Amino acid sequence: MHSTRPSFSGMRGRRRVLVAAGLAAALTLTATACESGDDNAADKPAATGSGASGGDKIEIPADIADRLKEHGIDVDDWKDGEWKNWDKDKWLTEAEDFVNPVIEGLWKPERMKSAKDPDKTISAKDASADQGVSDPAPAPVNATREETPYHDNAAPVGKVFFDSPEGSMVCSGTVVKDPRNPGKSNLVWTAGHCVHAGGGGGWYRNIAFVPAYNDLGKSESELANATPQEISPYGQYWADWASTSNEWIQGGSESGGAGAAYDYAVLHVKPESGSKSLEETVGTALDVDFSTPAAADAGTMGAWGYPAAPPYNGLIMHKCVDRPGRLSLSPSLPTMYRIGCTMTGGSSGGGWFRVVDGKTVLVSNTSIGPADNTWLAGPQLGQGAKTLFDNMSKEYGAK
């Protein structure tokens, strides 16, 4: 049974249920309200924002330093700018090569605002492939703004920042529950193309997650005088490990390619400052649904994210809610979900949610869409995605 009034509770406090209005079958995200006398309550936005406090330095872990050395990269040189070297022999590619040492203060508010979207589109010809399996393209659904403050309405949703050879980039992501670390998850779900370039490149660098970015939904002019807490209410979380599918690493491309149906990733993150887990700090997280329901049986799905390509500017959280159809790019690839949505690049990696037995769960993520921005498609999260997720939880969840 699928309810249209999801319930999604955080670790403590009362629940606030907010409706994605304007559609017959509304999907909601909820967050917790702080009612603890503890000044460090889990669901209270960090008072210090995104900056490190007290001059504390985060050291590069020995295992990361060792992996850099294996590729002839000096740790101090990396932090001083060697990370900008995208020469082929310096661009780490394989799954086990991921390194992401914290560079304190790199993601300043202005740098975050200037990050671009990693535009992933497919041509109309590709989108019409194998129409015997694909459903007709859906009618566009106009993206609507999320209610502010985001930490009350969609706390698990945030922005993923990273550096690529083309410059600083931005995607979207979602805080998800870690089954081996209940209540203390440090896991973020996003798209594979937000962490790895696919078959033509390697791992992106300086990957960081900012939940509830621009919490009050301020305009660009208003953000000029915004406090760090308004921009990053829970601070910044750097990825100390990332996993994406081998299919994306080998077959992904700028247009999605053969890796599009496997375009998902999981980040394990740590705070740039502080010691609490991401879930404790944000106050809530979502379960991941790996049941791959048929589109016809999945009910309503909603996609959340921060679209950055025109007519959007990446500063405001948006959402689309629709009933999914099927998209097949090839008979040899798994069918993807597709919904009508006008969100553009930058929303990539943002979670897709549905309701199962009254609970909101993550069922996919934004991967690709057409150049005219009328719909979005996301991968089905089957056994391969579940194995990747379980391995991340097992190997890195408690670190």
Automatic annotation (TrEMBL):
Signal sequence, renumbered to the chain: 1-33
Ranges for region Disordered: 34-58, 112-139
Keyword Transit peptide set for record: no
Metal-binding listed as a keyword: no
Amino acid composition bias (Basic and acidic residues), ranges on this chain: 112-123
Alphabetic keyword roster: Signal
SUPFAM superfamilies: Trypsin-like serine proteases
Residue ranges crossing the lipid bilayer per the database entry: none
Protein name, UniProt field: Secreted protein
